[in-house]
Write a structure and sequence with these properties.
Elements (H helix, E strand, L loop, with lengths): L1 H23 L13 E6 L2 E5 L1 E9 L4 E8 L8 E9 L5 E3 L5 E7 L5 E3 L9 E8 L3 E12 L6 E15 L9
Parallel strand pairs: 3-11
Antiparallel strand pairs: 1-2, 1-11, 3-4, 4-5, 5-7, 6-9, 7-8, 8-10, 9-10, 10-11
């Protein structure tokens, strides 16, 4: 009887350990809030990473599309956040994108709610985004360059080591079925 109780305690302990492991492992949820998905970059040397409401949202069609890349801090305080809109696409494909080659707007808003954009100042287009991998379920890539403060266009920030890994949605956030 004593061995049976010890075996039962061991099995019970094993179930508890497995339960904790299952609860702590991350998996994507319907809102793209998994820490598996993100947009991150060094802004003037400081690492900023956001992973809430992450998305690579494809809208439009049937022949012309827009791709919105987005991730924010959290629902209670969205700042900081990154967003990028690339318009007039015939498809989403691996390649390099910038305002010099595409209808694109990249934005970063810091924790103080100050926005920065990839503005074309003095015809200098010095911000690029590269999509390195596209599947039906996610989009990956990198970005770098200079962003300008969006209201006065006098202050700049340097963006280095930018990368993203975002869940792919179609038409609306959460819809994983291609149109």
């Amino acid at each position: 009887m004593k061995k049976f109780k010890q075996s039962l305690k061991l099995i019970f302990a094993l179930f508890i350990i497995l339960g904790f492991y299952a609860c702590s492992s991350s998996s994507p949820d319907d809102d793209g809030n998994s820490t598996n998905f993100y947009i991150k970059a060094r802004i003037n040397g400081q690492l900023i990473e956001v992973n809430n409401y992450s998305q690579a949202l494809l809208q439009g069609g049937p022949t012309i599309f827009a791709l919105n890349l987005y991730a924010r801090n959290n629902l209670q305080n969205v700042y900081p956040f990154f967003t990028c809109d690339i318009d007039n696409l015939s498809n989403v494909s691996v390649g390099t994108y910038s305002s010099a080659t595409h209808n694109m707007l990249f934005q970063f808003h810091n924790s103080n709610k100050v926005g920065y954009i990839d503005a074309d100042i003095n015809n200098i287009k010095d911000f690029t985004l590269q999509i390195t991998e596209v599947t039906s379920t996610y989009v990956k890539g990198t970005f770098q360059g200079i962003l300008w403060e969006e209201t006065q266009l006098t202050e700049t920030i340097s963006v280095t080591e930018g990368s993203f890994y975002l869940p792919r949605y179609y038409g609306e956030h959460g819809n994983t079925t291609p149109n």
